């Protein structure tokens, strides 16, 4: 990790308790929905903006930079590889984690695309008392995530989470898990 | 020669060799570049070392690998 990344990581870690503390305090002191004002709130606001931007920078960098990912995620996961035995243990634990996460992702995918509808009729309709419908619904885009509103002269654009639908995100994660495994395994086995 | 596809298990004399040199597990671990827990696992037979680590132990104790590690054949 370069100096800037190290500083970003330390800023994020050191300021996290302060940020969460202030957030809890702000929620409890402004339950009526009012917003704070004054120099204290200005400083907190700037710290919070810097912290959020830092968080976005680091999570994005972790996706693309192997070095940053290895350093940060190893610390976060508490992974130890000080000698060959610990590396072997880390490998076994990672295998268990990989397979169980894959199974969990498949479980979540199936349940996120499934539809079940049970209808009970008050009177017999075509000799039936009710209907049961089972199906699958796969939607790629979450329409409520990106909202563009125009109210009179006011135009607003709201980002409310990742615009892809839950099933598509889960499906992408499944493909990424299996694909990245095969990519690295084949590269290592080819040597 | 027996069936080489049968499962083999390794035993070792590390505990004895370490005692002869009056070393603690931590001393041995520091000397061969592993953690104390790994030395403990090796002595208990819970972990089979890599060829590299086996040679490091062999060089450290100035003994052949066969004098440190013994092979027991397990019938399937």
Q: How confident is the prediction overall: mean pLDDT of chain B?
A: 90
Spans of chain B of at least 5 consecutive residues whose pLDDT stays below 50 are none
Number of helices of chain A: 5
Q: Tell me the series of helices and strands of chain B, N- to C-terminal.
A: EHHHHHE
Number of helices of chain B: 5
What's the quick description here?
Chain A has 191 residues and is α+β, with helices and mostly antiparallel strands.
Feature tags:
A: 191 residues, alpha+beta, two-stranded antiparallel sheet, 5 helices, B: 76 residues, 2 strands, 51% helix
Can you tell me about this structure?
The complex is a heterodimer of chains A (191) and B (76). Chain A is 63% helix and 17% strand. Chain A is an alpha+beta fold. In chain A, the strands form two sheets. A two-stranded antiparallel ribbon of chain A has the order 1-2. In chain A, α4 (84-113) runs antiparallel to α5 (166-190). Chain A starts with a helix and ends with a helix. Chain B is an alpha+beta fold. The longest helix of chain B has 11 residues, at 51-61. The two termini of chain B are 16 Å apart. The relative contact order of chain B is 0.25. The mean pLDDT of chain B is 90. The chains are: A alpha+beta (191), B alpha+beta (76). The A-B interface holds A 82-86, 88 and B 33-35, 37-38, 41, 47, 49-50, 52-53.
List the helices and strands and how they pair.
The complex is a heterodimer of chains A (191) and B (76).
Chain A: H1 3-29, H2 39-64, H3 66-77, H4 84-113, E1 114-125, E2 128-136, E3 146-151, E4 154-159, H5 166-190
Antiparallel strand pairs in A: 1-2, 3-4
Helix pairs in contact in A: 1-2, 2-3, 4-5
Chain B: E1 8-12, H1 14-20, H2 25-32, H3 36-44, H4 51-61, H5 65-68, E2 69-73
Antiparallel strand pairs in B: 1-2
